[in-house]
Amino acid sequence: MSTPHASTASTASTTSTTVPPSPPLRFGVNYTPRRGWFHSWHDFDPAHAREDLAQIAALGLDHVRVFHLWPLLQPNRTLIRTTAVDQLVHLVDLAAEAGLDVLVDGVQGHLSSFDFYPEWTRSWHHRNVFTDPEAIEAQTDLLRALGRALDGRPNLIGLQLGNELNNLVEHNPVTAGEVDHYLDTLLAAAREGLGGDHLVTHSAFDAAWYGDDHPFTPEASARKGDLTTVHPWVFSGDCARRYGPRSPQVLHLAEYGVELAKAYARDPARAVWVQETGAPEPHIPAADAPEFARATLLNAAGCAGLWGVTWWCSHDVDRSLADYPELEYTLGLFDSTGRAKPIADALAATVAELRAKPRSTPPRSTALVLECTPATRSVSGPGGGFFEAWMRLRTEGIRPAVVLAERAEDTAYLTARGVADVLRMS
């Protein structure tokens, strides 16, 4: 097994011992409607949404991430349904009433193991959603329309292209270069619809970080959009089963995801958002979920440049709905009757604890160098040598940063990140 060792080729010095206060963190939840899951958009009920949002706000959270369904918003390539857009805007306004800010995801796309495509992309009309020029144009039209409709809402955080669009690559083959063109085109369209004060982002399932030759790359996640979003899931790479639900590898997974993302960013100050993390059974048994939530938040909060954490998800999927993977039925802070689960209480208490004291995040003066190619990216995922070396350092009390090999001798860059000691794998 590889062992980190000190590098003699590249070090940086830090002279200041004063750590300035860090910006307050944002804490929220991904909103999954309690009644009918996202199928509730077929017969949107504002009273039900108001009740769900009030429960979320009562936990002391400050924002939600919300999702409409692409087939309902754009059932024809040249038709965007005004009624569906108005429903989405209404939900954003209901969140404002509850005191919650909102990030809107545009193209859904993928949600909880189901993929939603408009019929004009399927069967004998099949179009590759990532490469077909007319399919791309339709998605840009939708994002512009959503941006125009939402712009000016004071509680709007921003507009995201869609949820984990890289989950769609199995049925839409695409190259890394084509992904870059797709993301650049859609991000520009989303920005065109929104004012300058809102975030424009994109998200990817963590195969983008760990998957060998996956066409959605770490560079795309860390360099495109206004900040980097990460979705560090304990089932990726069978992490929780491989190491155990109470293991350091699980409890520090979100922290690791933030530090890995920072390594790929060109801008050392680029913010990272832990946009999805959760406690799915049986990977995290219900008895362990409260401590998992507490440790995840506390460990991630020690990362400089963290924007916030958004839990997945608000409400369990009701078991009257069929054909979900077992873990999808147990991810909520509230059960399908609306009762708060012990994990909700733990999350709320930890959020209150973190907000009660000024936040200070000293720089990580020790960095571990990541050497990999697109074909060996899995070294940085659970089970990989780099992942295990980083976790070993963390359990020894070191707070390691991550630095890419090509930046390991860039003194100005290391200094900007506060790195004094560089360790390499042997």
TrEMBL record:
InterPro entries xrefs: GH
Gene3D superfamilies, per database record: Glycosidases
Biased composition, class Low complexity, residue ranges: 1-19
Gene Ontology MF terms: hydrolase activity
Entry keywords, A to Z: Hydrolase
Spans annotated as Disordered: 1-25
Listed transmembrane segments: none
Protein name: Cellulase family glycosylhydrolase
